[in-house]
Each structure stands twice: as C-alpha cells, then as structure tokens.
Amino acid sequence: MADTTLVIMAAGMGSRFGGIKQLEPVGPYGEIIMDYSIYDALSAGFNKIVFIIRKDLEKDFKEVIGNRIEKIAKVEYVFQELDDLPEGFTKPADRTKPWGTGQAVLCCKDVIKENFAVINADDYYGKEAFKLIYDFLNEPSYKENQYCMAGFILGNTLSENGAVTRGICKVNEAGMLIDVVETTGIVPEGDHARASDSNGNSISIDLNSVVSMNMWGFKPGLFGFLEQGFVEFLKGLKEDDIKKEYLLPTVIGDLVKGGKVQVSVLKSNDRWFGVTYKEDKDTVVASIKELINKGEYPAKLYK
Fold first, then answer.
1. What are residue 131's phi and psi, to 5 degrees?
2. φ and ψ at residue 2, rounded to 5 degrees
3. Pick from 73, 64, 83: which is nearest to 46 by CA?
4. Helix 127-137 crosses helix 33-44 at what angle (to 10 degrees)?
5. What's 36-103 look like in SS3?
6. How many of the other CB atoms lie within 10 Å of CB of 45?
7. pLDDT by residue for the chain (303 residues), tens digit each?
8. Contact between 66 and 51 (Cβ < 8 Å)
9. Strands 177-189 and 192-196
10. Is the Cβ–Cβ distance between 263 and 176 less than 8 Å?
11. N or C: which end of the chain has fewer CB atoms below 10 A?
12. Which of these, 184, 223, 189, lies nearest to 200 by C-alpha position?
C-alpha cells in the first residue's frame, strides 16, 4: 500500500504560551499532544510522519518525541526557516516572524510525493477526524484536485482562558467548502460566540458554525500551487509588512474561489482541545485523563 503521510506543523514560537508549548507533557507518562495525534493517525492507517520544526529546536524535539516515533513509523524532518525563499527573494533585515503555515507546508515538497494530511502540533483533534481524512485520501475515485478538511463545531473548539482565532467556514449543501474566513478574538458569550471582523467590529457567531482547525487532506499537486502562491505573496509585500504571513487557509480559500480545487468538509463531532494559553494545560491534562478512563487510550501509549 502507498504511504499516507501525516504532516505536523511544529515550528511555532509558542510566544503566548510562554515556552515551547508543543513539547509540554500532558499525559500520565510524559506524553505530549502530538503523541495522541500520532497514535490516532497510525490507528487510522497513516504510516509516515513528517515533522516541520525550527532547526534550533531539533535536538530538544528529537529527545522529547522524535526518537520514540522513529521506532514505530517512518519519520522525516523538515525545517521552516526565514531565509528559505524562492530564487530572487531575500529575507527583510527586520523580519523575525515565520512566514506562516503556507510556507511551512511548502517546506515539505522534497520529502512528500504521496497523499498527506496536515495538522497543528498543539491541537488535539480526536480519532474521528483522522479516520475520515485517511479514508478520503485513499478513495481511488477522487482526482488530484480534490482535497478535504476536517470541519469542527465552533462550540467544541473554544478556550475558557481567552480569545482564539478560528477559520469560520462557508459550506454549501453538498458539503463542499466555499470559503474560510479567518476570524480573531472569538470568545464564548452565552448561547453564541463574540468575535471581531476584519474591520475590528464586534460580530456574533453561531456556536454550531463549522470551523477549520488547520486539519487538511491534500494531494501532492498542492505544492505547485503553494510555490506559485508564495512568489505572488512575496511580490505583494510592502516595506511595513514585516509580520504578514502566507497562511494555508487563505491559500486554500483562494484556490477554491478560483475553481482550481474542490474541498470536501468532513464534519467531526469530536471535541477539540489545545494549548493556546498557559492556563489551558490543566484542561488538556484533565481531558486526556478522562479519555484514558473511558478506554479511548491506554494509560501508557508506548510500551
């Protein structure tokens, strides 16, 4: 059987969390959130893992998780670096912020030739979404331009400890993605959520809205779109755009609106949790313990 790869974006700075949040233990034997994602992915049928990390994190990363995953799956590492730019472009002298999730996935182009899923390192997605995406990617009737996205219920993805950013999805009656609108400052407020639109105006959002948590299923043809789009993004940068990012949801939204790809939204009812804020860690630890008590996971993931 051909490889089906899980790409884990783990190059984030962890600034709001106050440390390298991807490497924080949350399980009873020191497991981190990525351990549970990888466990669920391998159970669903994925058999290769690609970690996107920063070069300066490599030693710590391998010690905390990489070395043990290499014993149970094929593993590749790619490095998201600020100076990894297309020919003809150079890093602005005052740029310190990574180029974003679109560039992160583009870094994988030399190690992935097969269908692949993409997730964030610090998000727990649940078993259902991995199985849905694996089955989609291995359906032989789907064409090269047919992608998928795990759609989560907004109310299942909020933090009690502060505002979050979510990609609010517009989905047609056939379950196909029409658009993803990155929405900031989302907080629960009674029977709905409150957020800010692109102009900073307060808006109300239905808690049953479908949101993207950056969990996608792609074909390798995506890399061509990403390469072309990154060049266009860099050409359009202005001098004061030192923090502007090339974001995966924006790229996919543009491809959908341009009729270049189709994205099926695979709805998951699992509850998301993750470490956006330092205070979120206690919630994640308690949630993992509850799942272990229910028999969803063994107390010790690796023997």
1. -65, -40
2. -65, 155
3. 73
4. 40
5. HHHHHHHHHCCCEEEEEECHHHHHHHHHHHHHHHCCCCEEEEEECCCCCCCCCCCCCCCCCCCCCHHH
6. 15
7. 678 999 999 886 444 434 565 567 899 998 989 999 999 999 999 999 999 998 888 888 888 888 999 999 999 999 998 888 999 898 888 888 889 999 999 999 999 999 999 999 888 999 999 999 999 999 999 999 999 999 999 999 988 888 888 889 999 999 999 998 888 889 988 889 999 877 778 899 999 999 999 999 999 999 999 999 999 999 998 877 888 999 998 899 999 999 999 999 999 988 888 877 778 888 899 999 999 999 999 999 987
8. yes
9. antiparallel
10. yes
11. C
12. 184
8 Å CB contact between 252 and 180: yes
Q: How far apart are CA 28 and CA 235, in angstroms?
A: 48
Q: What pairing do the DSSP bridges indicate for beta strands 146-153 and 210-218?
A: antiparallel
